[in-house]
Amino acid sequence: MGKPIIRDHIHRGLSQPLLFILVALLVSACHPGNSQAKQLRESCEAGDLQACNRLAMKLQKGEYVLQDPKDAATLFDKACKGRVAEGCANLGLAYQYGRGVKKDSIRAVSLLNEGCEGKAMEGCAELGILYKRGKAVPKDITRAASLFAEACEGKSQLGCANLGFLYADGEGVSQDAARAAQLFKTSCDAKVPTGCVGLGKLHTTGTAVAHNDSLASVLFERACNDGEPAGCFYSGMAYELGDGADQSFWMAAAQYRNACEDNHGEACARLAIFHEKGSGVEKSADEAKGYRKKACTAGYAAACEQPKAPS
Q1: 8, 10, 12, 17: CA torsion to nearest 10
Q2: Would you list the domain boundaries of the chain?
Q3: Could you tell me the mean pLDDT of each successive run of 10 residues in the chain, 311 residues long?
Q4: Phi first, then psi: what are they for 41, rounded to 5°?
Q5: So what's the architecture of 212-304 in CATH?
Q6: Could you give the CA distance from residue 65 to residue 28 in angstroms, rounded to a whole number?
Q7: Residue of 91, 130, 169, 301 with fewest CB within 10 Å of its CB?
């Protein structure tokens, strides 16, 4: 009599979840994206270098194929050598962030430039970001503005979003808040998270758009969910201050932590203060010290320890 009970327990407790997993795997295997990835592989092996680039993008993201940044980098290289500009730009990003290859900022700039010259507009946008920040190249706002404008005209919404920030601040171009708002709106609608951050910031001040803290909070959270650390930071600020969102130190701390994990220095500094006070997190001098150090390392100078003046 005992055996049927045990068997029934196994049937109810184990086989149902296993069945769900098997069904999910079957559905995934039958998804059109799976078939498309297979076709791209076959086309790439047959010499279609555009297919190699597209397959590499799927491999990098793990989109209906096993994620393999190293194989992706190899295919980007193959496409780039075959004069596929997008392959050069994508390989440049791989070198910039160390995705499947060892980080090499000099190689990254060279490849992004090659991609941009070949009209790969995302390459122009990414190169513009480097010139704006002065990373791996001398800081040059005028050059950045030119690259963002070229990218935006070539339908790169990343280029449009970054051009929007220059118009908002009057850097490298004449200040034009209305133009900035239009660029932010277009890029945010195209699911570029930096565009949503820019639009949200305009809504918090009512510059060229209606003042709307609630909408700004939604835009910041959307950008955060799409992986933009600045979105997480401003979302954290909204929760901390109760601007456009119900005040919640716990939620603010969670958003600051998301941003800090992506090396947003000011977010790390805010998290340090939260740990000092025990706001939404455990009160801990050690945690506060650790986050302050991370903020300094991320480039937020205000968090760095100042040298003691000679007595």
Answers
A1: -160
A2: 212-304
A3: 37 52 51 80 96 95 90 97 98 96 97 98 98 95 98 98 98 98 98 98 98 98 97 98 97 98 97 97 97 96 78 56
A4: -60, -45
A5: Alpha Horseshoe (1.25)
A6: 10
A7: 301
